[in-house]
Amino acid sequence: MFHDTRFRPEGCSETYDAITVGAGVLTQDLYKFADEVNRTVVGGYHQTIGFAGGFVLGGGHSILSPVFGLAVDRILQVKVVTPDGVYRTVNACQNPDLFFALRGGGGSAFGVVMESSHRTEPRMAIQAAALSFTSAGIDDLADWYALTVNQSYRWANEGWGGHISGASLIHVNPLLSNAEAERSMTPAADFVRARGGSVVVEELPSWWAFFDKYVLSAEAVRVFPAGVRALHLMIADPTMQGVGNEVATGSRLIPSELFSTESGRAQLSSLISETLPFASPYVRAATPWLFNDEPGATSITPAWRDAIWHFGLSVPIPYNATRMQREEIYRAMEEHNQRFRDLTPGSGAYFNEGDVYEPDHEQSFWGDNYPTLLEIKRKYDPDGLLDCWQCVGWKGPEDPLYQCYIKL
Ligand SMILES: Cc1cc2nc3c(=O)[nH]c(=O)nc-3n(C[C@H](O)[C@H](O)[C@H](O)COP(=O)(O)OP(=O)(O)OC[C@H]3O[C@@H](n4cnc5c(N)ncnc54)[C@H](O)[C@@H]3O)c2cc1C
Q: Which residues form the FAD-binding PCMH-type domain (predicted)?
């Protein structure tokens, strides 16, 4: 890793405050390094995400993204070995087509990234809101999600980003003062306090201070949210708590209209409520809602730009589930994911955290950018040397590489 206050992408004229990371550098080390040089790197919510690899190549959301954009919005330059064996420097001024593809086209498709350079922000104070309670059951949880649906449009406009999962919420805000943050969170705090829950709204001096306190410590005691316990398919097993569990999941980018209109909010809340007995929603309020992106610069689906939530469902798959049980879980998951697709026609999904069996995945992950991505793939990898499941230009589910995937 290195920090350069006047980083200039090769062949370009503008300079930026940037940090360059080698492939393999993990978020935890990067955030700490940035903090030591008084900067902030906008990145994901876990300590072991490979920043220069799959994370940024697929899009890269952060709970700071509502204000500062996605990782693909902030990347300045990539050094990559393409499948023809050429080591290329890629940025807006050199190989711009490949730069576009690497800004959202997904890992393992266009080349092997050796290093990448990213714009930084100054080290900044952050308001953190951490709310949690013990839910009295599914109805209570449904009321909680309805409340968060009702508040999320305002929260997004105020610069909040965060996660909502089970009977808990963790949000951050780099724009508000502590008093403003307290006021903004009042409806949620009142709900949680009425149930004897815990409410903290505090100012932390930096992203690293937040990450160290809330992400690193929480990872040590991670448990599945209460709703998951109601899963009828789940095999009772104490090892389902903790880390390293397999889950069936899915992603849908939920457009602003479902938060800004009364009928939209009612529809979304009602669908979440119906889904709760089956699966746990995992909300990432981590879309680039307030960020002014450069139109046409990134290859993620444009649906990201109008979304307030990247919404996922997750159902744990017990380690000892039989193949038939696994198929049953995935099939049931498909039905539930489909209902969120039906509610959001024309929207999309996040490649990095998508449904393994995403139908029409080209459209979902990349929207109208897909034909251009495919052209770029054919230019740099005409023989299809790099291939992976549902990647740009993949060989398809019948390829021998994918025989271990369940066929639904
Ligand atoms: C616990 C957890 C938390 C997460 N939190 C977030 C989050 O907050 N925000 C978010 O956006 N995503 C998040 N993700 C999803 C994450 O972005 C993806 O899992 C992503 O694929 C991770 O990339 P990786 O390089 O670390 O993983 P890997 O599994 O190593 O790689 C993923 C894909 O990228 C390819 N790849 C890896 N390195 C390179 C390289 N150098 N060059 C080319 N291709 C490469 C791999 O071949 C593979 O296809 C999270 C995932 C987990 C497990």
A: 1-123
